TrEMBL record:
Residues 85-126 are annotated as: Disordered. It comes from Candidatus Vogelbacteria bacterium CG10_big_fil_rev_8_21_14_0_10_51_16. NCBIfam families: uS13_bact (TIGR03631). The lineage of its organism: Bacteria, Candidatus Vogeliibacteriota. GO terms for molecular function: rRNA binding; structural constituent of ribosome; tRNA binding. This is Small ribosomal subunit protein uS13. HAMAP family: Ribosomal_uS13 (MF_01315). SUPFAM superfamilies: S13-like H2TH domain. Residues 99-112 have a biased composition (Basic residues).
Length: 126
């Protein structure tokens, strides 16, 4: 089953399979399936054509995949252009939402720093 150019995994339940689409998490998947009146445990190959169309129709009501990526990218670009603090943090690839950077923040920083010893060189005993 394909929704907005994404093939849903056949082996997973619908509530999990829908999360393969960018912009749909567990709670949104539940709301989509509730609106389409489909049980969470059904797998994509088990859906009838009518049920598949109802799920597609419900997904079209949300901003997902390319539209969502474009909107997020334009928001970040706007922050950079106006020179806001958050825009500067995005430009420098640092955490944007106030997290500490002395330790942690490896997701944004990359694994740049390596742990060093005490700084003292060990003397060989003679």
């Amino acid at each position: 089953m394909r929704i907005s150019a994404i093939t849903l995994p056949d082996s997973k339940r619908m509530e999990i399979a829908l999360t393969a689409i960018y912009g749909i998490g567990r709670s949104r998947a539940h709301s989509i399936l509730d609106a389409a009146n489909i049980p969470y445990g059904k797998k994509p190959p088990e859906l009838t054509t009518d049920e598949g169309e109802r799920v597609r129709k419900e997904c079209e009501g949300h901003k997902i995949e390319g539209d969502l990526r474009r909107e997020i990218g334009s928001s970040i670009k706007r922050l950079k252009e106006i020179g806001s603090y958050r825009g500067e943090r995005h430009t420098r690839s640092l955490p944007v939402r106030g997290q500490r950077t002395k330790t942690n923040s490896r997701t944004r920083h990359g694994n740049v720093r390596k742990t060093m010893g005490s700084g003292k060189k060990k003397l060989d005993k003679k």
